[in-house]
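Title: Prediction job returns without error message
Component: structure pipeline
Severity: low
Priority: P3
Assignee: unassigned

Description:
Job completed but the reporter wants confirmation the result is attached to the right record. Sequence as submitted:
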Amino acid sequence: MLCTYRVCGGGVWPFVAAWTCNDGRWSVVVGRGKYAVVKRCVCRLSGADYAAKFVHKRRRGRDCRHEALHEVRMLTMTRAQPRIVDLVEVFETRTDFVIVTEL
């Protein structure tokens, strides 16, 4: 599966249209780190489970966009490796990157 990269203008509409992170009323957090939150999400078309990593672009007043793009490039380069999660889709909003991978 090829990864698609979408830039979302004012919000996360393309992400919300294709994915859902809600399990009923609760949002299932798989992991939480210092700069990102990983939530379980479901593809609206196939119903398959994936992980969505929400990475903040700014930290302590600095632009950290290059770090998220580096992570996307690394996941793209290691696509053929069976022991590394596959990158499915990437969304860029005004404040965050949403990196969707295998769960």
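Comment from assignee: result matches the submitted record. The chain has one domain: 4-57+80-102.
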